[in-house]
Each structure stands twice: as structure tokens, then as C-alpha cells.
Design a protein that fits this description.
CATH topology of the largest domain: Vanillyl-alcohol Oxidase, Chain A, domain 3
Shape: globular
Strand content: 15-25%
CATH architecture of the largest domain: 3-Layer(aba) Sandwich
Helix content: 25-40%
Number of domains: 3
Largest sheet: 8 strands, antiparallel
Length: 477
């Protein structure tokens, strides 16, 4: 790590009055470097924690004046370190985490450093909910700017489909509003490729009435039930209900009893309807069943025991064309379980598959937002977790091998169905350097290049899936 010279740091301190500044000799320096995954931590030259947009603007201008690498940290969930900088400046938005509700307009406005917990809790206090993430300690910034799937997506679409406006600090220091009526080209780009254009210091979301609890919980099945569980999940997509959603998790049982299939079920309606909707699952005699009527914000805590902070992690996006072949699922399940049982340091790893009603999402034209992956293809994640740093390259390489097998299956299925093989895939599940996921921006790329050239011509924002332009070729992390 190269140090930022004293004169540059003094210039920063003289300009910023309200933000907190951390340098390597600060008492809490190492605390502010902590990320959700230890693989995402880097030793910054300076960390600035602003309290308003002006602080952000000053820090941005300073970084460019002194040619210092820049990263922006919201929730810090990137396993690839895109919210960190080795020797550069990190603008850490964690002190800007307030969420406020306009009950008349039914909107929630949250600052850029908020997590979905702040949004969920603020909305619930007024009987409202926004389309947000399924793990409530995820930052709102990263999830929103890439698209945003949540349990309410079947009913209301993606997070970006419910974004009404955003306040953005641009590379040149200007503070602007982006909405359908102000800087509409920027607003278009933010919704699906938003990492590329500036620092979003607040988001305003459309919210919806959510006074009643939902029917949701965990179902656990032994490994021999895999095929019938897949049949039930496939049936849920064949006969979609916008109020229903599910996740299927291949993992090891916490008690050490062996491989397990966890299904998180969700139904936004009364108990009787929820029980009927999930009857095909409960009939399979799960060994674990926590289904109950619970407040909506609680649903977004169900994955928290598996998604805790700490350890080393790798995310690899996988995508499948429904219905998912139960035989292929069995092969993937057995191979994955053999690996993580054979290497105890990987025992808390998982494959997570989403089963989402895509109809509302696909109603939005591809050209309406920068998000290019509006199609029936479902999303998933290979989630590896370990502690031994010396195994980083080995585990990531293995994750890429597993990911490649899912890609081969997807290509075969889409070819059989006559689907365009170049279907773009979900940006938030494609970490930088992820060669398997090669098509993200699809037919929106040309327009995105124009928006990038207008708002960030020097490619200041280049950490997460930078839009390929002439400038971005020469400036890499």
C-alpha cells in the first residue's frame, strides 16, 4: 500500500469540516476497513465518512486533484473489494443512514449509507414496505443501482422500477437530482448500471401498503427429497402467483447431520391462502418447518444466520432457465456436498437458487431502464465461505468451475428452447473479473456509453462493472 503524502491529507482536512476522517494512524482505522467479507478488505490511504452531499463533493474533487484511487462504500457486501481501495480514498457512507417516510405520498427516502433494515423498519412503522433486499443488512446503494430483487418483486417489480428519484454527487462535484423529469438520462442509467455515474446520497422509493403480516419461514428437507422439492419449486413457476416466492438452498445442516435442502417460502397474504400455496412443500414431510405469519421485515432476517459478517467469501452468479432439471440439480447438489463435506473449512457454504415470478419485471421494456436482464431466466448464487487465506485462489477457481457447469446447462436449455444465447445476466450477481458472465448491458450498452461520457468522462467510478469505453480501458483497479 502506497501512502498518501502529508500535504495532500492536510489539504483534505482543511476542506472538509463535518466529515470524520481516518488515516492509517487513526485509533479506529482498522475498524472502518471491515467489510462483510474479509476478502473485500483493503488498506485505504484515507477513509472519509461524510454526513452530507457537500462532504462527498469535496472528497471527490480532492481525489481527482491528487490523482487518488476512489472507492465508495455503502453496505460493504462486495466480496471482490469494490467498496475498498488499496492506498486510495474510501468514501464511506455509513453515517448517512437515515430513512424517512412520506405517508401521504407513500414514499420512503433513505440516505445512501442505509441498509434495508432502516428502510424496512421505517416503512413498517407506518404500515408500508418498499421492494428491497432479502438480507436486511445489505446496503441499499449496491442493490438498487444494479436492479434489486426482493420478496415483493413478483407484485411490484424490481427495486429500480420503484425508484422515484435520487440525489447524486457527480464526478465533477455537482450535486444533482435524477428523476423522470430531471436529468432523465442519468436516471435511466442509474437504474441498472448506477455504479458508473456518481455517488448516490439518497434514494426515494415508492412504497406500498403492508399492514398485515406475511406467511413465511424455513422448510428443511433431507437430501433424498431433492427431486420432489425441485418438482414443487418448478410447479410454483409454471403456475405463478405474484404474491408467492421461494429460495432453495443447498447446504449442510447446522447440527452436522449432513446435507440438507432449505426452502424459504413466502406468501404475501393470509394464513389459509399461504398454507394452500405451500401445501405441496409441507406434504413432503420437512424435518424443519418454521412457517408462520410474521411481520414483513422479519422475512428479510431469515437468511441472517448464514449471511453473517466475517470469514472469507466468494460470490459467483449462476442462472437457470426454468423448469430446472431435477437430474441436473441432483448432480450439482451431490458434487457440492462432497466438496464442502471433504473440506470442513467450507462447511458453511451454500448454493442459493431463487424462484421468482418474473411477469411484473418483464412487463417493463428493456429500453425503459439500463437493466438489460429482464427475462424469465432465474438467478442464483454459489456462496463459498472459508477462513484460510492461503486457500483463496483454490476456492475461487473451484467456484468458477461450478459456475461454468451451470452456464453449460443454461446454454443447452436456451438453445433447445430457441432463446437468444446472449441473454444478459443480472449485474448484481456478477462480480468484477467474472468471465463466465460476459453479457451484462446487452442492447443498452451504446446508450450507456453516451451517458457515461456525459457524466463521468474520466471514468472516476470504475470499481464495479465499468461501462467499456475508451477511457475505461486505461484506468483499472
Amino acid at each position: 500500500m502506497s501512502e498518501i503524502n502529508t500535504a495532500a491529507l492536510e489539504a483534505l482536512r482543511s476542506r472538509i469540516k463535518s466529515a470524520t476522517i481516518y488515516t492509517p494512524d487513526s485509533e479506529r482505522y482498522k475498524d472502518v476497513l471491515v467489510r462483510w467479507s474479509d476478502t473485500g478488505m483493503k488498506y485505504a490511504g484515507v477513509v472519509v465518512q461524510p454526513i452530507d452531499a457537500l462532504d462527498v463533493s469535496i472528497a471527490l474533487s480532492w481525489a481527482q486533484e491528487y490523482d487518488i484511487d476512489l472507492a465508495v462504500k455503502c453496505g460493504g457486501h462486495s466480496t471482490a473489494g469494490t467498496s475498498s481501495s488499496d492506498g486510495g480514498l474510501v468514501i464511506d457512507l455509513s453515517r448517512m443512514n437515515k430513512a424517512t417516510v412520506d405517508t401521504e405520498r407513500k414514499t420512503i427516502t433513505a440516505q445512501g449509507g442505509a441498509t434495508w433494515k432502516e428502510v424496512d423498519d421505517a416503512g413498517a412503522a407506518h404500515g408500508l414496505a418498499a421492494v428491497g433486499g432479502t438480507v436486511n443488512h445489505t446496503g441499499i446503494g449496491g442493490l438498487t443501482l444494479g436492479g434489486g430483487y426482493g420478496w415483493l418483486s413478483g407484485q411490484y417489480g424490481l427495486t429500480i422500477d420503484n425508484l422515484l428519484s435520487a440525489t447524486v454527487v457527480l464526478a465533477d462535484g455537482r450535486i444533482v437530482t435524477a428523476s423522470a423529469t430531471e436529468n432523465d438520462d442519468l436516471f435511466w442509467g442509474l437504474r441498472g448500471a448506477g455504479y458508473n455515474f456518481g455517488v448516490v446520497v439518497d434514494f426515494t422509493y415508492q412504497a406500498y401498503d403492508q399492514k398485515d403480516p406475511v406467511y413465511s419461514g424455513l422448510l428443511g428437507f433431507t437430501a433424498d427429497k431433492l427431486e420432489v422439492v425441485m418438482d414443487a419449486l418448478n410447479e410454483s413457476l409454471a403456475k405463478p402467483d405474484s404474491r408467492f416466492g421461494a429460495m432453495c438452498i443447498f447446504t449442510l445442516a447446522p447440527d452436522g447431520s449432513g446435507p440438507m435442502i432449505i426452502v424459504i417460502g413466502f406468501y404475501n397474504g393470509p394464513r389459509e391462502e399461504g398454507e394452500e400455496k405451500l401445501a405441496s412443500f409441507t406434504a413432503l414431510e420437512p424435518v424443519l418447518n418454521t412457517l408462520d405469519m410474521i411481520p414483513y421485515p422479519v422475512v428479510n432476517t431469515l437468511q441472517s444466520p448464514q449471511a453473517t459478517y466475517g470469514d472469507r467469501k466468494s460470490f459467483k452468479g449462476i442462472f437457470y432457465e426454468p423448469p430446472l432439471d431435477p437430474h441436473f440439480a441432483r448432480v450439482m447438489f451431490n458434487d457440492f456436498m462432497a466438496k464442502i463435506q471433504g473440506e470442513p473449512d467450507l462447511k458453511t457454504s451454500a448454493i442459493i437458487l431463487e424462484f421468482t415470478d418474473m411477469r411484473k419485471i418483464c412487463e417493463v421494456p428493456l429500453s425503459a431502464t439500463a437493466m438489460a436482464s429482464r427475462n424469465p431466466t432465474q438467478n442464483g448464487i454459489i456462496y463459498l465461505r472459508w477462513t484460510d487465506e492461503s486457500k483463496d485462489l483454490e476456492h475461487r477457481a473451484w467456484a468458477r468451475e461450478v459456475q461454468s457447469k451451470w452456464k453449460v446447462e443454461l446454454d443447452a436449455r436456451t438453445k433447445d428452447q430457441g432463446v437468444d444465447l446472449s441473454v444478459p445476466q443480472y449485474i448484481n450477481y456478477a462480480e468484477p473479473g467474472d468471465s463466465v458472465v460476459s453479457n451484462i448491458f446487452g442492447g443498452n450498452l451504446e446508450r450507456l456509453q453516451e451517458v457515461k461520457a456525459k457524466y463521468d468522462p474520466k471514468n472516476v467510478f470504475h470499481k464495479m462493472q465499468p461501462i467499456p469505453t475508451g477511457a475505461s480501458v486505461s484506468k483499472k483497479e
